[in-house]
Design a protein that fits this description.
Chain A: Component of the menaquinol:cytochrome c reductase complex. The Rieske protein is a high potential 2Fe-2S protein. Chain A: The main subunits of the menaquinol:cytochrome c complex are a Rieske-type iron-sulfur protein (QcrA), a cytochrome b (QcrB) and a cytochrome c (QcrC). Chain A: Belongs to the Rieske iron-sulfur protein family. The complex is a heterodimer of chains A (about 170) and B (about 150). With about 170 residues, chain A is of the alpha+beta class. Chain A has a domain of about 110 residues: Rieske Iron-sulfur Protein, CATH 2.102.10. Chain A is built from 1 helix and 9 strands. Chain A is elongated. Chain A starts with 9 loop residues before the first helix and ends in a 5-residue tail after the last strand. In chain A, about 20% of the residues are buried. Chain B has 5 helices and 5 strands, in the order αβαββαβαβα. In chain B, strands 1, 2, 3, 4 and 5 form a 5-stranded parallel β-sheet that branches. In chain B, about 50% of the residues lie in helices and about 15% in strands. Chain B is an alpha/beta fold and about 150 residues long. Classes of the chains: A alpha+beta (about 170), B alpha/beta (about 150). Chains A and B meet through loops of A and loops of B.
Chain lengths: ~170, ~150
Amino acid sequence: MSEKRQQVSRRQFLNYTLTGVGGFMAAGMLAPMVRFAIDPALQASTAGEFKAVEEVDNITEEPTRIDWEIEQVDAWYESTVTKTAWVYKDENGDIVALSPICKHLGCMVTWAGSDEYPDQFYCPCHDGRYYKDGENVPNTPPAEGLDFYEYKIEDGTLLLGPTKPRGEA
Amino acid sequence: MQWNKQDLGQYLTAEEYIDTLLIPLVPISLATGEDMVKGAGQMETTNIFVKEMEKQYKGRIFLLPIYSYLSSPDLEAEAVRLNKWVENACQRPFRHVFFFTFDHQWKKQERLLSGNLLWLPSIKADDIQSKETKAVVNDQVSQLTELIKSYW
């Protein structure tokens, strides 16, 4: 108890200092190398980007059109592209986000777009129709259902990403 | 459908469904700097309008590349040339032909054209990307597509 507190010797002091400085330099050299090594994994893919589009609380059971913009880069130029989705909550309260692109020839479908079918998606070009869940109505031109958007929910906000066809859902 | 290889591939497998031809008309003049700026602006806005229209009804509207011509108060000769275009295009199963333009000179020659003229007063927007302009354009486009739909 009464023993005098051990002083840091010259040897120890140099040891600590060199280890500290050396470690720092090694870290400085290694960090960029590690960064290069795992870089592809960190690269955000523009195609798979998720964008916040709407507060989840604002989404009702009625399909609503949501538009948002993404930066699209292709080999030649960068452009701002407007994306559109029809979003609603199903009976379980789960989010459903459908692509508006008709699977027939690529027109834009609208919810209740035809007065005759107020509870279906309707394509004005060739009278293609889809049920609320996006499945195509048999005997109308489209051969498959509307694509889904991949989605995430973060802090009560809905984020939409790339679309995926029904077969892979 | 647009005039590119990818869309044409799809078009050629389903051409009986695409029965509406859309031809954008844009005048060009290099006489004065003012004309040039005006013409270039019209080219940009025309492009935005027709591409948006095509996007709505991709499966039924075939969009030709912009037809540009020397700006002139007398477009009779151009009307004759355009009709040849239409004649050529109508070997395909097109049943409706629309011309889209901001050039008011066409309004006078409307009866000479073998198709429907969609003429709009040009939009003077300093910033076509601004939110307000976009809202105006989107509204105009949806009215135009409604009009086209009424012909089907």
